[in-house]
TrEMBL record:
Protein name: phosphoglycerate mutase (2,3-diphosphoglycerate-dependent)
Keyword Repressor: no
CDD domains named among the record's database cross-references: HP_PGM_like
Recorded GO MF terms: hydrolase activity
Length: 210
């Protein structure tokens, strides 16, 4: 029975002025430094190829696709967006530390929503439904390999839910431009909805590889 391969790549870095702020659906572009870092990674290392390319609709992901996969037309999926932090977008934890709702949210309450945003439970449901739809589509069409360019929070959450070995979301943390490859075996997927995380990407180039 054939296996299906999905390669998750986190978008490149955004401007340092956003560091420490909640940047979810805020549509910021890659920074100039982030673009240069991606181009350097692409030159020095090896990103996987695939038949299908999916991306979040946000600029930082679309621009990452343009740099790493300039000859592929990505399929834009709204549900691949990062968590919507609502009125907390662009603010730091320190700025929000006296907000009672924020205290509940940061304390791990999965149903608490930022004002005009989404709870972590809503976020998880959204991206899980999307991911399962992608896997179903790949299997129905016989497409055995795909790339998903999205956000760190999306990738970490999906790997924590569907990935083997089992690990918590922050065990899957990655830098911009990096990610993980998973292998899906239809029988195991249909029985347990799990996949094997088998490598971190991009890969080192082999000797003599340009």
């Amino acid at each position: 029975m054939k296996s299906y391969y999905i390669h998750f790549i986190c978008h490149g870095n955004i401007d340092e002025t956003h560091k420490g702020k909640y940047i979810g659906t805020t549509n910021v572009p890659l920074s100039d430094k982030g673009k240069m870092e991606l181009k350097k990674l692409d030159h020095n290392m090896k990103y996987p190829g695939a038949t299908a390319l999916f991306t979040s609709p946000l600029k930082r992901c679309k621009e990452t696709c343009e740099i790493l996969y300039p000859n592929m037309k990505p399929i834009v999926i709204d549900q691949l967006s990062e968590c919507n932090f609502g009125e907390w977008e662009g603010k730091t934890a320190d700025e929000l530390k006296d907000d009672e709702l924020f205290k509940q949210w940061i304390g791990g309450s999965s149903e608490v929503k930022p004002p005009h945003g989404e709870s972590s439970a809503d976020f998880t449901r959204r991206i899980c439904h999307m991911f399962e739809d992608i896997v179903t589509g790949l299997m129905k069409t016989g497409t055995t390999d795909a790339i998903i360019v999205t956000h760190g929070g999306v990738i970490m959450t999906l790997l924590a839910i569907y990935g083997l070995p089992q690990a918590k979301p922050f065990d899957w943390v990655m830098d911009g431009g990096y990610g993980y490859s998973i292998r899906i075996t239809p029988m195991l997927w249909q029985r347990d909805k799990v996949s094997e995380v088998f490598q971190k990407i991009p890969l080192p180039k082999e000797d003599g590889e340009e």
